[in-house]
Amino acid sequence: MVELSESDSRTLLRRLRDTLATEGDGQDRLNHITQIIADSMGTEVCSIYLFRDPETLELCATEGLKAEAVHHTRMRLGEGLVGRVARSGRPINSADAPSEPGFRYMPETGEEIYSSFVGVPIQRVGEKLGVLVVQSKDERSFSDDELYGLEVVAMVLAEMTELGAFTGGENSEIGATHRFPVMFRGATGQEGAAEGRVWLHEPRVVVTNPVAEDPEAEAARLEEAITELRGKIDEMLASPTLIDKDQRQVLETFKMLAASKGWKRRMLEDIAAGLSAEAAVEKEQNAARDRMRKAPDPYLRERLNDLDDLSNRLLRQLTGQGSDTGAEMPENPVLVARNIGPAELLDYDRKLKGVVLEEGSVGSHAAIVTRALSIPLVIHAGRITAEALNGDPILVDGDQGVVHLRPEESVAHAFRDKIAMQAEAQKRYASLRDQPAIDKSGQTVSLMMNAGLMADLPSLKGSGADGVGLFRTELQFLTRTKVPRRNELVQLYKRVMDAADGKRVNFRTLDIGSDKVVPYMKPQDEPNPAMGWRALRVGLDKPGILRMQLQALLRAADGRPTSIMFPFIALPEEFYAARDTLLRVRDREAQMGRPVPEELRIGAMLETPSLGFAPDSFYRDCDFISIGGNDLKQFFFAADRENERVRRRYDTLDGSFLNFLERIIARCAVSDTQLSFCGEDAGRPIESLTFAALGIRTLSMRPASIGPVKHLIRRADLGELRQVIQQARNAGQSSVRPAVTSYLAHL
Ligand code: PEP
Ligand code: MG
Is residue 405 within 8 Å of residue 183, measured between CB atoms? Predict the structure, then answer.
């Protein structure tokens, strides 16, 4: 074997690149490439193995082994030395291959006469494509430089595979593994099911020029791109809108990594060996991903993750490819992203069928927006951005938290059946739209919907809701870089009230702070944000924004009946203080000659257990109380609503929680205070029927839940169900769920 100098390496890469321009099919190119490599390296054998499916490699071209073996010799992942290279993603360099553990003798190739073996993986960011092997008769081990030279060649082969250089003819099944079905088991962010095509929020950068003519010019391009990138990072760090602690930390890490000498040196070496600047960045990104997979330390994994992000940014800088590649959005787009902010998600408007994120949480803004848009969201979906390509078929099962990428036909079939069944049921429910939710014995339940966006309002008609039981006002604050102007809010609230057309809308004042950080508010470094400085606590401590919002609501109402509720009250005094603020704002508006509502209903959200024990006077003083079950439950059971490990651990229908609800129901009955329930549980049929049977006669839920809940109420007898619940509790059952489920099943 001859040593490859830098200029030999460049000549070799140039010859490889030239094969791209040659006539002929993919097989001709592969054959030619193995000849060139064997010739340049001075070895008897050069072979290329590519994946036929995620588990099987196939010999696709060879110089030196028997030609009959091509497309016949196959091995499983992990099998033989080639399979080991493919599985580990690491090269094997051996002077005496037959004595290596796992060596597999393949008589059809005539391989036994070759003693030394070097195999390097052919892979491209996160994706294994195959293995490149050179072998020679003499027993010798190859130097690190030779191994490195082969890795550079393998990088170019990977790019060529991506560009489809080897497909066609006998290779039509071979090449990029991202043609195969993959399933991701994540977690539910928002229920529902959708079928569509992948739309990457940040599409992968396509490198079309893996080999470069002029290493000096490439090195200069790389230097320039790094300098610009560093400039951008500094700019972002200096930006006055950057106050999010996590974002700052990530940028600081980027800054450190971008200045890393080792990273740049390795890329410059790759360029000297003949790669283009882009291919050099990718090669190092590959290496980082490999280390990332194996890193046992979560901190180190995070940093490698940051390096991965930084490489993507550098690639975009080099190629000039922004997030907008000019690609056309497919029909029924399903957004796939590492993470996404609420404003960006809203920018997609109503086009999306579903969203799949690698990160995210149930309580994240993205989840709030998908809920408002009624589209399924799956979070924690592995490394899907590395696997998915724009336009790939995708199924999103928000109920199970599962995603099928490029699904088998049988899976897609079953999935379509499920969607069809849901659509069928929706049709049935639509026929109930104008019917009241009355049970068999004539008791009425008022079903309202939750909303938070203008985009939600059309559902008010479509779902047959009696009104908006909860209008979350924080989205307009979360999606802007500055505090919205009062006038903007007036216009928005006015449009909401207009759309409601006389139906009641309970506007909830801002529930921000802590976990829902707005860009223009100084972040509070709180150890336990859900129990921190949030919602009305912020409103009372910084009354400027609260007053402005209340003014906007009253002006939007323009004299119409208005209903306002305050979130997250722990003590009656907080409610009284908020109510005083509202009444003062109202009086001032009146003094200024503006119309004020004659009917102003002021309510409290019951989200902390303490309010269940507030004095009777508090219940009398509230015009209405709405139970925010999402928060109430997390504090009642001390189980974080966003923590996957515990959030489903405690049953809402556990006797202890029901006892607590009954206490509130009874107290509201005594003071004649209207009571509603507006957490997610109100939209779950079994839970909602139980609440109604216990006496909560106003339920506010996602619009899509109104049909199913109404359907059940109309078939049930709430008095009978109450007895069933009572019997289960008397019998000592901890949760009444089995009893309620069985009652409903027999309707
Ligand atoms: C709740 O806590 O149940 C609620 C409705 O408010 P949010 O989900 O916005 O905290
Ligand atoms: Mg809440």
Answer: yes
- Three-class SS state of 565: strand
Which pLDDT value is given to residue 243? Answer: 52
Could you tell me if the CB of 682 is within 6 A of ligand 1?
no
Distance CA 56, CA 64 (A): 22
Check whether 300 has a pLDDT greater than 90: no
The protein residue whose alpha carbon is closest to atom 8 in ligand 1 is: 630
Residue of minimum CA distance from atom 1 in ligand 1 = 628
CB of 607 within 6 A of ligand 1: the answer is: yes
Q: Is the pLDDT of residue 252 over 60?
A: yes
Q: Is the CB of 630 under 6 A from ligand 1?
A: yes
Strand-pair category, 45-53 with 127-136: antiparallel
Which are the contacts of 523, defined by CB distance < 8 A and separation ≥ 6?
243, 244, 245, 517
CA of 472 to the centre of ligand 1 (A): 9
Closest CA to 563 of 512, 616, 605: 605
Instruction: State both tokens at 119.
Output: 């195999």
Q: Is the CB of 452 under 6 A from ligand 1?
A: no
The CA–CA distances, whole Å, from 608 to 612, 627, 634, 669 equal: 8, 9, 9, 20
Cβ distance 575 to 607 under 8 Å? Answer: no
Determine the pLDDT at residue 396. 96
Residue with tokens 């556990």: 654
Q: Phi and psi at residue 522, in whole multiples of 5°?
A: -65, 130
DSSP letter at 219 equals H
3-state secondary structure of 343: helix
Q: Does 358 sit in the ligand 1 pocket, CB within 6 Å?
A: no
Q: How far apart are CA 694 and CA 66, in angstroms?
A: 79
Banded model confidence at residue 1, pLDDT cuts 50, 70, 90: very low
Q: Is 673 helix (H, G, I), strand (E, B) or coil?
A: coil
For residue 725, what is the DSSP state? H
Residue 178 has pLDDT above 70, yes or no: no
pTM: 0.72
Q: Is the pLDDT assigned to residue 725 strictly greater than 90?
A: yes
pLDDT in tens, 386-406: 788 889 999 999 989 999 999
Hey, whose CA ends up nearest to atom 6 of ligand 1? 628
Contacts of 355 (CB under 8 A, 6+ apart): 189, 334, 335, 336, 337, 340, 345, 366, 370, 375, 376, 377, 378, 396
Pocket probe for ligand 1: among 511, 512, 531, 657, the residue whose CB has the most ligand atoms within 8 Å is 511
